[in-house]
Amino acid sequence: MTLARTWLRRPFMIAVVLGLSLLLTLAPVLLLVGALASPLLPGRWRPLRLLAFLLVYLALELVALVVAFALWYLSGFGWQLRSPSYQAMHYWVLRRVLHAVVLAARWLFRLRIRTDGLGWSPLDDGVPGSENAMLVLSRHAGPGDSFLLVETLMNRDHLRRPRIVLKSTLQLDPVVDIYLNRLPSAFVTPGRSGPEAVGGLARGLGTEDALLIFPEGGNFTAGRRRKAIASLRGKGLATEADAAERMQHLLPPRPGGVVAALAAAPHADVVFVAHTGLEHLSTAADLWRGLPMDSDVLMRWDFVAADDVPAGEAAQRQWLFDRWAEMDRWVEENRRRPAAA
Predict the structure, then answer these.
(1) N vs C: which end of the chain shows fewer Cβ within 10 Å?
(2) Edge-to-edge strands of the sheet including 161-167?
(3) For the residues of 258-309, what is the DSSP string, one character each?
(4) What are the CA-CA distances from residue 278 to residues 146, 148, 222, 306 (Å)?
(5) Mind listing the pLDDT tens digit for each residue in 99-110?
């Protein structure tokens, strides 16, 4: 049994939809309870803020699922879902839903998103950046970075069509399951045919596309760091293991998927994304203690033209580790930066 089997996931999705409907029906009562409990608990209206965000998120999930069913019906019961027009409709829905999620987070949690002002960024107003296909390689830290990155890549000035490499377990989220299985995406299980899936996803990248990869494969923890270093040494990759030991905030990148993507799309520009501000929110307990955030998420986007990408697997592996080391130093320099006024 695997998550890749649709018939195993559909009963779960139906249960989730019923649960969402029930929770949203009870929303007025839940919000009242949250408002009454907030003055009695630490933090500034922490229960009410978290509950309000959860209800917004669940409402958007339910709306997105209803729209997905409507698109399936209108497409001839799924017959034309892969057509350009229906693909564009799915991207439009995702863009609006992600924008609403990020907007709610920024308002309810007093979260500010900004860049360090160095280099190119899709957040720069009126700056389209690359007019080429893009391969986006990002640090993975915290539960919200995927939302922020995809929403940024799809924002009003950039309007990219993201292709995303993500863990197969994320298909337990019905919206992720439905929409990303209808759009170009790769659900991978660590250690099982990841590079091949990524290479296949990278083929045919067009000028409006952006392939998003998290080369670390998961959020940073001390245990994962030790395990990754030991794995590199066990494979005889002493140079890469030494480089990983010098990184204090990032896991060593897994080059297989990146090398496969570069081989399949040598015409694509590459963007490295570093960010800090969410790494301390890895668990539900962290999220509870961290609200309201009243802080910045600081991002850095490093653009590399396709012609400047090294050729050959060995050179690309070294290049990837070098850039990851630069990200690690950037995080060290910026993770304690005070929030903007």
Answers:
(1) C
(2) 111-115, 295-304, 269-276, 134-138, 209-213, 161-167, 185-188
(3) HHHHHHH-TT-EEEEEEEESSTT--SHHHHHHH-S--EEEEEEEEEE-GGGS
(4) 11, 11, 16, 30
(5) 999 899 888 888
96, pLDDT greater than 70: yes
Q: Are 315 and 88 in contact (CB under 8 A)?
A: no
CA angle 326, 259, 269 (to 5 degrees): 70
pLDDT band of 8, cuts 50, 70, 90: low
Residue 133 neighbours by CB distance under 10 Å: 21
- Give the per-residue pLDDT at 213: 92
Q: Burial letters for 73-111: b for 16+ Cβ neighbours within 10 Å, e otherwise?
A: eebeeeeebeeeebbebbbebbbebbebbbebbeebbeb
Residue labelled with tokens 């009242």: 32
Per the model's pLDDT, the better-predicted residue between 64 and 4 turns out to be 64
Q: Is the pLDDT of residue 180 over 80?
A: yes
Tokens of 242: 């030494």
Express each pLDDT in 281-298 by its tens digit. Answer: 666 666 666 665 666 788
Residue ranges of domains in the chain: 6-334
* 47 Cβ neighbours under 8 A, 6+ residues apart: 34, 37, 38, 41
Contacts of 199 (CB under 8 A, 6+ apart): 257, 260, 261, 263, 264
Q: For tokens 């229960």, what's the residue?
A: 47
What residues are paired with 295 via a beta bridge? Answer: 111
Which two tokens mark 34?
A: 């949250």
